[in-house]
Amino acid sequence: MSTSTPRTLDMEHSHALARLAKERKRSRDLEAEVASLSDRIAELERQKLDLSDEGFDELKRCSSLLHLRREEARLSREQGDEVRYYAKAAGTLFSYYEMVDKGIKHYAPDAPDAPDASVASDASHASHASHASHASHASHASHASHASHASHASHASHASHASHASHANNHNASHVVLTASSNSASAGSILSYMSRKPSCSAASLFDSYVHRVNQTCASSVAPLCCSHCGATTLSLCTQDGYVCCDACNTMQYVLVDHERSSNRDVHRDVASGNSYIAYKRINHLNEWINQVQGKEATEIPDEVYDLILLEIKKQKLTNMATLRKAQLKGILKKLRLHKYYEHIPHILSRLSGIPSQLISPELEDRLRFMFSQVQVLFYKHAPVKRKNFLSYSYCLHKMMQLLEKDQYLDSFPLLKSREKLQMQDITWRKICDELEEMLYREQDEQALLMDLPNMLREATSLRNARVAPTHSQRRVVLHRILEYTSRNDRVVFGGHAVHSALDTVGDDQPPIYAAEEVAVADLEFYSPEPVADLVRLCDLLNADGHKRVQGKEAMHLGTYTISVEFVRVCDVSHMPEPAYRSIPTRRGCVDGVENVRMVTPQFAMIDHLRMLCDPFTSYWKLDRMLPRILRIQRRFPFPTFQQQPASQQPASQQPASQQPASQQPASQGVAKVLEWAVGRSTLCAVGEVALAFYEAATPDTVPQDATLVSSAYADDLAALRALFPNDKVIEYHPLVDLLGRRACFKPAVPRRSGRRSSSSRPFLTLIDASGRATPTSGRNADGLCIASVTFCIVSALTIAFAARAHRHLSMADAQDRLVDRFSAARLRGLADTTVADITSPFRDTMLVYVGIPMSEMARHFQGRSHPWLVYTPGRKCRKDDDDGKHPFEQQIGRCDGSVARVSDPFKAH
């Protein structure tokens, strides 16, 4: 029969010192690891644009591990603080070691140095005390050397004071022993006995030490005291859940356990000393759930771990992470430790250091609920002679299957006996059949899922027929708006324009809108005077008798929306007059209204392709827009340009040695720009620089111009002005939401008369990203970021449209030619792969983005000073939305005064 070594305060103190030293060493190791992780993260951040998928995964792992190691280092520093330890334990340690030195069992702060009479009368006790004092001399010396750091005073001079303080602070928690001479009978001796202060035993000092250091009380009795006066005379009111102090009447609210003898409590038979737990099925289910997660509080002896590790060493298993449950079960079976089978997850987690598989609290609650349902029906469907419940592992396995949590199935094995398994399957099938009949059977679920599209169509039909504005009202509103656009020559875009264009093709594909969806789809059109159109349309709809007509600004900058009965029916987007005249349009019929002016499908592709390049604000509608993109590009491809002879090719496509002399300064400027742009994280190249990357051009092919997109437009423009102080810079306003603010640099070429003139073609165009992130597919040989090929095509189409608005037809033709060459290069590059291949530079997925994106509303409010416009017919606008105070002014053209302005329509209205 083995006996455990008694715990003494001296041993606890020695272990505490070793633990403090271990924590300090661990803290230093963790701080070194934190420094190493910080250096690695900084290295990965510097090459973030060139990181592969493995690099990004490593960056995420290092960041998570850095946060964890910092927290561990902080905890280790706190746990290894020696000063804090002695500040808590110094008084108790002084009292204990003084008692040991004097060889007494009980220590009184003001007692004389001689031992107590009752102790001194026993010679054997004195001998034992002397032996204890001698045995603990080394530990006492260690204590004295350490305690001097915290108290800064000698043990001899302050021992009495420290012991007295320790006794006063722990008087209520410590076990008090009063000693007196058994032969004292006189009044003087009684008075001296009554005036003596209580002494402290070694057990009470041990309890005080544990309470101070570990913030727990090792004593078996923990008296409940009043928080106000410290009295222990408290009265408990279980109905209202509070205790009341009989001395000062202070009330404290407490948690009352009304099921004190619940089935989860362990009851001890006083006579036999045996423990038992009342049987309850839910308790066994909880035990299974906890055991699988390694959460049970079972203390497995160290001897078991030693035997397992010895067997693992015999089997030459060097990596504990590869140890599996089946292997561990075989080892336990070989060692005849069958009773530890149920603790395999806990043992495996302790040996490998890998946490056990966790089950979420929500899933645990779901399992308990399902288990309670099974219990109700078990006796109804169980065999007649069966009394025991189903296997808990079997039940949990089946419930995990029903919940489609297959990752947990290995943790709940089925029965090995085929007969028993078949019997339980029959019972389980009957229980499930009855439970399914309560709500939905399996065939009902399948039928509902298959009929879900019909259910949605039925709900939509009912809503359109009964909820205002109804389908018929929406059709009347749509016809009124279409008549207005046709009469005022407004340009319709969006779904209705694409639907009309594809409807004329007559292919076998389904239309964009079904017949019943045409009237309920909101209409979108461009206008050079959107606010004036908004006011007129609101007044027309209000005059027609529609209720709750309102016009207001929308989320996108320059867009206004009209609603009827709080349902959006129309969007009016601003397009400045010069650009409005340049929109390529076609005439057609929309929902029975003839001669409606609409954008061409090729122009609609500009807005559609931008969605592929903007995953931050546009991907929510990509599921319905992507089929439109694919159908448009099949039925209405971009026009191609015939390859010109070498003598008629643009200078940008000719070798540098064959370029005209007048274009050579521009080439020099481009080379200077590209050298300056290398390594800048805010720039991304499009245009001819990007085309050279995708066409893998030869080194002697020098681009004639460079087009860069900047996420820090103001800073990069200032740097470029300083780089080219003598060249002319022309800055243009943004082209609504299609093209951001841009600056064109033109080289100054000296004339014969000595004066300088600027060439007609800019050698550099800097475009503001306008709060959007630019997708990139890699870097060129010089290290410059190159935009994705789809973004390059969109940029070329947009710049061509802006050039036609400014009457720069040669530049527009050059951009159209770029679109043709980008498309041809893309087809050649995707000969053996697709746009979804992450290794291809022509991909449209898994791209790296330059710049920090902003939401549409944030871009709208950036630099905004005027109030939000809201117009309601027949009602005076609010003060902050006063018509005359809304400074609607949009510009197109140069920023130096050569701009086309739109005046405030409210002042003319």
Would you give an account of this structure?
With 909 residues, the protein is of the alpha+beta class. It has 6 domains: 9-79; 82-179 and 192-214, no CATH class; 279-352, no CATH class; 366-449, no CATH class; 468-635, Beta Polymerase, domain 2, CATH 3.30.460; 660-859, no CATH class. It is built from 31 helices and 28 strands. The strands form 8 sheets. Strands 14-15-9-10-13-12-11-26 form an 8-stranded mixed β-sheet. A 5-stranded mixed β-sheet has the order 16-17-22-19-18, sandwiched between helices. Strand 5 (242-245) and strand 6 (251-253) form a beta hairpin. Helix 3 (82-102) crosses helix 6 and helix 26 packs antiparallel against helix 28. The model is unreliable at 1-5, 109-198, 216-222, 258-276, 642-664, 751-758, 878-892 and 897-909 (pLDDT under 50).
Please give the structural blueprint.
Blueprint (H helix, E strand, L loop, with lengths): L8 H38 L6 H27 L2 H21 L3 E2 L9 H4 L2 H13 L1 H15 L3 H15 L6 E2 L9 H9 L3 E3 H13 L19 E4 L4 E4 L5 E3 L13 E2 L6 E2 L4 H12 L9 H13 L10 H10 L9 H9 L8 H21 L10 H11 L15 H21 L3 H9 L1 H15 L4 H17 L3 E3 L1 H11 L17 E5 L2 H14 L5 E5 L5 E6 L2 E8 L2 H5 L3 E6 L2 E7 L1 H12 L9 H14 L28 H14 L5 E4 H9 L10 E5 L2 H11 L4 E5 L9 E5 L1 E3 L5 E3 L5 E5 L5 E6 L5 E3 L1 H17 L3 H21 L18 E3 L5 H6 L8 E2 L19 E3 L5 E3 L3 H4 L1
Parallel strand pairs: 9-15, 10-13, 17-22
Antiparallel strand pairs: 1-3, 2-3, 4-5, 5-6, 7-8, 9-10, 11-12, 11-26, 12-13, 14-15, 16-17, 18-19, 19-22, 20-21, 23-24, 23-25, 27-28
